[in-house]
Amino acid sequence: MKHIKTIVLKEWSEVFKNRLVLFTLIFMPLIFTIMPLAMLYFTGDGMAGNMGAVQSADVPVEFLSACSPEMSAGDCMQIYVMNQFLLIFMMMPVIIPVTIAAYSIVGEKATHSLEPLLATPISTTELLAGKSLAAGLPAILIGWTSFGIFLLGLPILGVSRAVIDYITGPTWLLAILVAGPLMAIASVNFALFVSSRVNAPRVAEQISSVMIVPILGLLFAQLAGIIVINVLTMLSFIGGMALLDVGLIYLGASIFQREKILTRWK
Amino acid sequence: MIETNGLTKIFDVKKSPDITAVQDLTLFIPEGEVFGFLGPNGAGKTTTIRMLTSLIAPTAGTARVNGYQLGVDDTEIRRSIGVLTESPGLYERLSAFRNLSIFAELYDVADVDGQVSKYLHMLGLWSRRDEPAGSFSKGMRQKLAIARALLHEPKVLFLDEPTSGLDPEAARLVRSFIEELRGEGRTIFLCTHNLTEADRLCDRIGIFKSRLIEIDTPENLREKFYGRRVVFHLRQLDPAWADQVSGIAGVKDVQTVDQKLVVGMEDPEALNPQIVRLLVQAGADIEFVGELRHSLEEIYIQTMQESEEEEAAA
Ligand SMILES: Nc1ncnc2c1ncn2[C@@H]1O[C@H](COP(=O)(O)OP(=O)(O)O)[C@@H](O)[C@H]1O
Ligand SMILES: [Mg+2]
């Protein structure tokens, strides 16, 4: 455990000295938090009186059935829009670890600092755990913090009770508290794997960003009205992610062996 | 203490023939010895270090480091050794202090701050401890990397080409640091392709190129290769004279080449007059007397060539 802590703190003190990484870690969450709040603020008024137009044009019929009957059409519309943003929220735990892992692994490859590290009594499991936590923890914490700020902003912007109840309801909580960390784990392991194969952090980042594809998939499926984000779809998504995690952790662990790092990582 | 027996590493390279980086290496390095592992680029020195530090597994053979069996007590091996890897790999953005404290923690050093401050003082870096490692000179960075391998006071220290790529001044700094370490009773395994360095720092030298070609103390190697030789060019040579010359006290060996006598000895200035007198009395016409000198470098290159020829012949 002590070794893991040493690695995590070492990664952070190195990686956070990189401006590009810092930029991703500060501005992306800021934008992703402010955007939905601003959206709520601008869609909040005038919606309620405009039921008919909203119903027919902007919200897929399937989604309307997901809104409870006592909700106003305006609330229903807001929830629909917010569900798009939920997916954007879920991108944070995917993008942040990719950035950190890409710089932490590719950076160490470039400076050849992994070999002295591997020559210490640390086990490869500890080293892998340290690197993964260093990339995954900030993602989870930043994701949760942004969500917290977002929640605090809701009453201030005068968002209706029904919408707040929905956002603090099971679908969102599952997404933020369970799906987010699971995606961070997948993202970390995939980024570790990709980083072991390439020599530039930017390339590692670009390749690893395919990890946002599942979320984009959800986003477009919802926009196209193919699926509706609700507890059931979220639970299935979580199940799929958990499976993907198992596979990617296995992949990550299989490449993280002393001899392979020294002789196969190019 | 390092002991190897038939240690071999063959790299299996896809789509090209396998590379035998280390072949059948058998060595015994007693505790406290500074051992020079001397060989050209690509000889397999780094591969040997990587095997002995249990970073990569040998294809064949066994080894013990500090009494621990390679492949069995790997964590114990790593705990009891220090390594300066081929590229020092410091964290250039982090301070000198952090660079050392991270490793002190990974080596489970009890008094992290105490050990780090001991070595920073030793390097004269205490006042610059908060400066990033990247801001130091190359020689200083190399010394910092060596200190990093010493924080847990290992009994065996591996140094992989500690002065390669350094300018002469930086190399001098690093060498005198290694000389300081000699006094502390550690076993040091020093890889180098620099002969003078091996000669100056090591108790014994192994000349190595995939295989161990020669192993001896620098004195014996020097004598063997470099020992002073005097050539007596004669008009004609009577083989009996060689026996007479070799009877003189102080003469180590006598060879006959064409009409020449090649005499090995330690002190030609003292013995030459006596040899000349003996030859003249025996009836030899001496045309010319000269010293045959080989530089250590030349001999080293010659050994390498011989080993290549042998390989080609085999
Ligand atoms: N991971 C590897 N895969 C294939 N060949 C390797 C690998 N590492 C080293 N070699 C080869 O083994 C030989 C010895 O290399 P090395 O141990 O680095 O030599 P030295 O340190 O003496 O310069 C070289 O021919 C090198 O190309
Ligand atoms: Mg080498």
Topology (elements, then pairings):
The complex is a heterodimer of chains A (266) and B (314).
Chain A: H1 2-15, H2 19-44, H3 51-58, H4 61-66, H5 73-111, H6 114-118, H7 124-156, H8 161-167, H9 170-195, H10 201-208, H11 213-223, H12 231-255, H13 258-263
Helix pairs in contact in A: 1-7, 2-5, 2-7, 5-7, 5-8, 5-9, 5-10, 5-11, 7-9, 9-10, 9-12
Chain B: E1 2-11, E2 19-29, E3 34-38, H1 45-52, E4 60-65, E5 68-69, H2 74-80, E6 81-84, H3 96-106, H4 112-122, H5 138-148, E7 156-160, H6 168-182, E8 187-192, H7 195-201, E9 204-209, E10 211-216, H8 218-226, E11 229-234, H9 239-246, E12 251-257, E13 260-265, H10 268-282, E14 286-292, H11 296-313
Parallel strand pairs in B: 3-8, 3-9, 6-7, 7-8
Antiparallel strand pairs in B: 1-2, 1-4, 4-5, 9-10, 11-13, 11-14, 12-13
Helix pairs in contact in B: 3-4, 3-5, 5-6
Bound molecules: adenosine-5'-diphosphate (ADP) and magnesium ion.
Adenosine-5'-diphosphate binds next to strand 2 and helix 1 of chain B.
In short:
Chain A is 80% helix and 0% strand. Chain A is mainly α and 266 residues long. Chain A has one domain.
Q: Would you kindly provide a written description of the structure presented here, covering whatever features stand out?
A:
The complex is a heterodimer of chains A (266) and B (314). Chain A is mostly helical. Helices cover 80% and strands 0% of the residues of chain A. Chain A has 13 helices and no strands. Chain B is an alpha/beta fold and 314 residues long. Chain B has two domains: 2-216, Rossmann fold (3-Layer(aba) Sandwich); 222-292, Alpha-Beta Plaits (2-Layer Sandwich). Chain B has eleven helices and 14 strands. Chain B has a six-stranded mixed beta sheet, sandwiched between helices. A four-stranded antiparallel beta sheet of chain B has the order 2-1-4-5, with helices on one face. Chain B starts with a strand and ends with a helix. The complex binds adenosine-5'-diphosphate and magnesium ion (MG). Adenosine-5'-diphosphate (ADP) is lined by residues 11, 13, 19, 21, 39, 41-47 of chain B. Magnesium ion (MG) binds next to helix 1 of chain B.
